[in-house]
Structure formats: structure tokens, C-alpha cells
């Protein structure tokens, strides 16, 4: 594989840090770009002494200038959990989605670089089609408390495809379904990290809704493999492509699995389901299988073991 100069925005975040590590292992030069709003340099600590890794503190809502050659751009920059993108960060989230993509498309155009964009299953909203194929156009509340993220990501896809059609920019778009693993922020409010951290801390387990809403949980290593395969597909194949694990579990089943692995007596406490929170989420990955020869390899049980081991080093275990 020929070594490339690769920009990763959101590179100190959960997914970005894993991607940076994988690209460095493949022999590429990685330029990690982040404002560390939800990411942390701790996530890339082991890479900072590597001569093929460099870090730029930058907010992608502002134009980015890079003097050296850029071959590929992975655009992952955006707050991605409701706890981060709702409330005070909602306008910032929309700006990151929209202005960030505009600025990264301009960078790609300037360098004649290929740009990969991490969109989301949230573009499907509360789905009327199950499982969700890429052809489904979604059911999103454009003025709800999640709209900054849901509609921001939908607008970002629109911008990318206009740059592809109008400016000839080489784009690759994936839609990410629930992903978990090491480097998740314990405070990000996602169901996997919440349940594991509460169980390790000896607390009751908080679930929202009645526990019957479903999610499809993909381990981070599987997702990163999908990223790289998509980035390196032939020119002209743009996506979008769903990337996620089609195994569907209720959040109550997830909680019970975590409790059985960690042990202890934990009561499950149910709280009201947040507004516009989707009740079902499951990817149709037919296109990923066909075009990327990709499907997840790591089971939820195995992935939870790895993730629990990580969080044991991050939270006070009781």
C-alpha cells in the first residue's frame, strides 16, 4: 500500500483516535485535526511520538490551510452524543456539521484530495422502514431538540453531493450506526458507556423509555475497517453506505448482558424517553457487503468484554 498524507478531523475523539492509530499502523502520514471539544489528546497519546503523526488544534468551522500535500481527508469532526449536541452546544453542532463540511470540501478541492464523511443513522430519524436501507429518506423532526445533529448531518450530505456534482470533488459518505468500544467518553451519555459505568460503580442502571427500544451495536474495530474500505473504493462510488452491526438488541437486553458480565446486584430504573429519541435502529448492510466486502466480525458479547476492560481503568470500581 502506497503511503499517503491523510487529514483526520475529529481525530482525538472516540472514532477518530482509533482511525488515526490504524492509519499510522498502515504506514501513512496522519495530520490529526481537532478542537478537543469532545475529544482528548489522551486518546492519541501513544501516537504523539510517532514521526508520521502530527496534531493541529483547530475548529473546522473555520477554514483550514495545510501547506503539505493532502491525499485523503476523513471528516469525523462533530459532537456525536445527545448530551453534547443538545442544549448549549446545539448551534455549535449545526455550525460544525455545515461549515465544517464546507471548509473540508474546499480543502479537498484545493488539494484534489478524496474526502470521506462520517454521516449518521440519525438521518433516518424515527424510521418508518425497518431495517433502514440507504434508499430510505427518513422521518426527521426538523425543529426538535435533536435537529441540530440530525438535520445538520443531512445538510452535510447535501453539501458533499453538490461538491461532487458541481466541483468534481471525490467524495465517500457512510452512515454510522451505534458504535462502542475503548476511548468512549464515560460522560458522553451513550447507552453502552452509561450502563457499563453505572454497573462498575455499583449504581442502579438507568434506561430511558420502557427498555424495549432497539439499537444495533457495532464494535469500533469493525467500523474502522469499514471506513478504510470505503475510502479506498474506486472513484465514482460515493455512497452513502450504512456501516453498523445488523444484530438488533433492546436496550434492556444490553443492560442485562452488561450486568451478567460485571456482576453485583443492580436495579434497572426507567426514566422517560427523551423527545424524538428513535425507538428502532437497525442497518441494512446489503450495500456494504456488496461494495466493500464488509460486515462486522466481533459479537456484542466479545465487544462488551473489551469495552468493560477499558472502562475498568477509567471509573472507580465498586
Chain-wise SSE layout:
Blueprint (H helix, E strand, L loop, with lengths): L4 E5 L4 H12 L3 E6 L18 E5 L14 E4 L6 H4 L4 H22 L2 E7 L26 H21 L3 E6 L2 E2 L10 H10 L4 E4 L5 E2 L2 E2 H12 L9 E3 L5 E2 H12 L5 E4 L14 H7 L7 H13 L6
Parallel strand pairs: 1-2, 1-4, 2-3, 4-5, 5-6, 6-11, 7-10, 8-13
Antiparallel strand pairs: 9-12
Helix pairs in contact: 1-6, 3-4, 5-7, 5-9, 7-9
Mean pLDDT: 94
Alpha carbon gap, first and last residue? 47 Å
Task: Going across the biggest sheet, name each strand in turn.
Answer: 3-2-1-4-5-6-11
Number of beta strands: 13
**What is the subunit organization of this protein?**
single chain
Low-confidence stretches: none
CATH superfamily of the domain at 5-179 and 219-243: NAD(P)-binding Rossmann-like Domain
Which class best fits the helix and strand makeup? alpha/beta
Query: What is the number of helices?
Result: 9
Radius of gyration: 19 Å
Return the CATH class of the domain at 5-179 and 219-243.
Alpha Beta
CATH third-tier fold name of the domain at 5-179 and 219-243: Rossmann fold
Bin the helical content. 25-40%
Q: From the 3D coordinates, which CATH architecture of the domain at 5-179 and 219-243 would you assign?
A: 3-Layer(aba) Sandwich
Categorize the overall geometry. Answer: globular
What letter string, H or E per element, gives the SSE order? Answer: EHEEEHHEHEEHEEEHEEHEHH
The portion of residues forming beta strands comes to: 15-25%
**Main beta sheet: strand number and arrangement?**
7 strands, parallel
Amino acid at each position: 500500500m502506497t503511503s499517503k498524507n491523510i487529514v483526520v478531523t475529529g481525530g482525538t475523539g472516540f472514532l477518530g483516535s482509533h482511525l488515526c492509530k490504524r492509519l499510522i499502523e498502515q504506514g501513512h502520514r496522519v495530520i490529526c485535526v481537532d478542537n478537543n471539544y469532545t475529544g482528548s489528546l489522551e486518546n492519541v497519546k501513544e501516537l504523539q511520538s510517532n514521526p508520521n503523526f502530527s496534531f493541529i488544534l483547530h475548529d473546522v468551522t473555520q477554514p483550514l490551510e495545510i501547506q503539505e500535500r493532502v491525499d485523503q481527508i476523513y471528516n469525523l469532526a462533530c459532537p456525536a452524543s445527545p448530551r453534547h449536541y443538545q442544549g448549549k452546544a446545539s448551534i455549535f453542532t449545526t455550525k460544525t456539521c455545515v461549515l465544517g463540511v464546507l471548509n473540508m470540501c474546499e480543502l479537498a478541492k484545493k488539494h484534489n484530495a478524496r474526502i470521506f464523511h462520517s454521516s449518521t443513522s440519525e438521518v433516518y430519524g424515527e424510521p418508518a422502514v425497518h431495517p433502514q436501507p440507504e434508499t430510505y429518506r427518513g422521518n426527521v423532526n426538523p425543529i426538535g431538540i435533536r435537529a441540530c445533529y440530525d438535520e445538520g448531518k443531512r445538510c452535510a450530505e447535501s453539501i458533499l453531493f453538490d461538491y461532487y456534482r458541481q466541483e468534481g470533488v471525490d467524495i465517500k459518505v457512510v452512515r454510522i450506526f451505534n458504535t462502542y468500544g475503548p476511548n468512549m467518553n464515560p460522560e458522553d451519555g451513550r447507552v453502552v458507556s452509561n450502563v457499563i459505568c453505572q454497573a462498575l460503580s455499583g449504581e442502579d442502571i438507568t434506561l430511558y423509555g420502557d427498555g424495549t427500544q432497539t439499537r444495533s451495536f457495532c464494535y469500533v474495530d469493525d467500523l474502522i475497517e469499514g471506513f478504510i474500505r470505503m475510502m479506498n473504493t474506486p472513484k465514482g462510488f460515493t455512497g452513502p453506505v450504512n456501516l453498523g452491526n445488523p444484530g438488533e438488541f433492546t436496550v434492556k437486553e444490553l443492560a442485562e448482558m452488561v450486568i451478567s458480565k460485571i456482576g453485583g446486584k443492580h436495579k434497572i430504573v426507567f426514566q422517560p424517553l427523551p423527545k424524538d429519541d428513535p425507538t428502532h435502529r437497525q442497518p441494512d448492510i446489503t450495500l456494504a457487503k456488496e461494495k466493500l466486502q464488509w460486515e462486522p466480525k466481533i459479537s456484542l458479547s466479545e465487544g462488551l468484554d473489551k469495552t468493560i476492560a477499558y472502562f475498568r481503568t477509567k471509573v472507580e470500581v465498586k
